Amino acid sequence: MTVSARAASGGEPGASQRREVEFSVHNTGSFIDENMRKKIFEPFFTSKRTGMGLGLSIVQEITQSHGGRLWVESDREKGTRFAFRIPSLD
Fold first, then answer.
1. Strand 18-27 relative to strand 2-10: parallel, antiparallel, unpaired?
2. Cβ neighbours around 84 below 10 Å, total
3. DSSP character for 1?
């Protein structure tokens, strides 16, 4: 597992670029199929026997409330990466 943070630039397409901070967690041992990735941020969605399915939904809501975005990338060979970006304070 790799946890990282880096400076990035982003913003909406066509808008001026803004300074952002990107945080990510990358696990090389797991894969999330496309159908699950489409639902993974929905409230109460879970693939586990226990839990309420609110964790990623809450993280997405907090990220968006700070003007950021959250996403997941998953590949059978490379593993899964969750990342979010928020605007930089400076």
1. antiparallel
2. 20
3. -
- Report the alpha-carbon distance of residue 44 to residue 85 in Å, rounded: 23
Report residue 85: phi and psi, to 5°.
-125, 140
Q: What are the extents of the domains in the chain? A: 2-87
Fold annotation for 2-87: Heat Shock Protein 90 (3.30.565)
Percent of the chain with pLDDT over 70: 93
Tens digit of pLDDT for each residue in 44-63? 998 888 888 899 999 999 99
Asked if residue 33 lies in contact with residue 18, where contact means CB atoms within 8 angstroms, the answer is: no
CA distance 40 to 70: 11
